[in-house]
C-alpha cells in the first residue's frame, strides 16, 4: 500500500439554517478541510478536519498538508499509520513550530485518511477494523435545535419537534447571554415544554467567567441539566476544577483540546466529568484512542464532539468501551457516500468499508474551493 499521492481539499458546506451562533462563533458554512491519499493498489483514503469555513486559515491547513506532510508521506507504506503519525507529529522541524493549532488540524486530516485506507484495505467498516461494535444501540443527542441565535419560540418549537416527531430523548442547548438570567428563562421554558424525562445538556462555548458560572449553576440547580459544556476559557484547568467541585451539574469539555497531555491535565485535576475528544482536533484517530483509553482508566464517559459531524465518531462510539452517547448535527451528511444516519434517536451502524469519510464527487464540484 505505497502512498503515491496526497491531495489536499477545502469544502465549504451550507448549514441547515442560513447562519447560526453560539456564545462565541457565528457561522454560515461548515469547513471540511482535508486530504485524499492514494495508494499503489488504487485505494483512496479520505480524511478531514472541521473548521468555520474561513478560506484564508483553511488554506494554512492545506498548505501544511501539501508542503510539509505530503513529501514525508509519498513512498511510505500507508498501512504503517501509527509509525507515520509519529513521523509527522514528532518531526523535529514541525514540532518546533506547532504541537497544536494548524499543524495538528492538518495531522488529524492525514491520520483519519490513513485509518480510512486501513479499513478499506481490510474490506470492513472502521468499527469492525478496530475490533467490533460493543453495542447495537448508540443513542444520539440533537444539538441543531439549540443555537443561541434561535429565539425562545424557535427553541421551543425545535425542541418539541426533535422529541415528539424525530424520537430524540436528548438535546443540547447553547447558553452564554451577557445576562445569564435570559438563559435560565429559556431553559425553564424548554424544560416545561418537553417534560422531565428528556435529557437536556447545555453548552457555553467558553464565554463566561467563574463567578458568572457559579451564579448560573446555583440558579439552574432544579433544571436537572445533563452536563454543562465548556463553561469557561478552554485551557483554564483551575477554574474548571473549582466549578466542578462547587456544582452538582457535571462538567463536559474537550472540543478545543489538541493533545493527550491537555486531556490529562483536566482529568487529573478532577475538572471534567464527560470527556469530549474530537478526531478532527486531536491528531486524528490515533490520539483520540489514547484520550479515550485515558478516560476509560478514570472511569469517565467519552462523548465525542462532532467536528466531523459524527461521520467518524459513529465508528469510534460503537467501538470504544468508554463511549456512551453521540452528538448529532445533520449539516454535512448528504455529502458523503455513507452518511451518518440517525433513526428514532439511534445511530445506524455503518456498513461500508472505511471510516465513512468518502466525499461525493458532486460535492467537490459544487462546494470545493481553490487552494490558492
Ligand atoms: C458552531 N458543539 C459545539 C459550532 C460546536 C459549535 O460554532 O462549531 O457550537 O462546535 O460547541 O458542541
Ligand atoms: Mg460544544
Any overview of this molecule?
The protein is an alpha/beta fold and 372 residues long. It has two domains: 3-123 and 360-367, 2-Layer Sandwich (Enolase-like, domain 1), CATH 3.30.390.10; 128-347, TIM Barrel (Alpha-Beta Barrel). Helices cover 39% and strands 18% of the residues. The strands form four sheets. It has a five-stranded parallel sheet. Helix 10 packs parallel to helix 11. The protein is globular and about 60 Å long. Residues 22, 25, 27, 143, 203, 205, 255, 305 line the site of (2R,3R,4R)-N,2,3,4,5-pentakis(oxidanyl)pentanamide.
What is the general shape? Answer: globular
Class from secondary-structure proportions? alpha/beta
Indicate how many domains the architecture comprises: 2
Strand order in the largest sheet: 7-8-9-10-11
- Which homologous superfamily in CATH is the superfamily of the largest domain? Enolase-like C-terminal domain
CATH fold-type name of the largest domain: TIM Barrel
Estimate percent helicity. 25-40%
Q: Report the total helices.
A: 13
Q: What is the element string, with H for helices and E for strands?
A: EEEEEHHHHHEHEHEHEHEHEHHEEEH
Rg, nearest Å: 20 Å
What is the CATH architecture annotation of the largest domain? Alpha-Beta Barrel
Chain oligomer state: single chain
Largest sheet: 5 strands, parallel
- Cα distance, first to last residue? 30 Å
Low-confidence segments: none
**Fraction in beta strands:** 15-25%
User: What is the arithmetic mean of pLDDT?
Assistant: 98
Question: So what's the CATH class of the largest domain?
Answer: Alpha Beta
Q: Based on DSSP secondary structure assignment, what is the total number of beta strands? A: 14
Distinct bound molecules:
(2R,3R,4R)-N,2,3,4,5-pentakis(oxidanyl)pentanamide, magnesium ion
